[in-house]
Amino acid sequence: MRIRRELIDEIVAHSRAARPRGEQGEECCGLIGGGDGELTSVHRARNAAATWLRYEVHPSDQIRIMDQIEADGEELVAIYHSHTKSPAYPSQTDVNLAANWPGVLWLICSLEDYDDPVVRAFRIEGGEIEEEDLDVV
Would you place residue 57 in the very low, low, confident or very high pLDDT band (cuts 50, 70, 90)? Predict the structure, then answer.
């Protein structure tokens, strides 16, 4: 899946804004539009759960963003969120949530090492996790 460097940078910036250095903070989350094998737009959402343990895309943000993605002629391709203190790999909570979003790519930004954030992508179908390569351009 292709993604521009500036979109990765936006996901990292959102992750750091939700968890400033030295603070517990909270997980961030958002939706990503695109199509034809490319991620083309990142849309920040509020974390309705407001905790560092999990995220929940705020319902009104979800509606607003999905309307924007459609208006831009894109499709909802991916959902992103951060892990504030753990690796960029889906937790059981992430796997459970993915059951509600079949076919969506999941991007996770880990701030386990704040100075060296890691963004990885996964397909989660039927409880099975498969990493997908990101072609950052």
Answer: very high
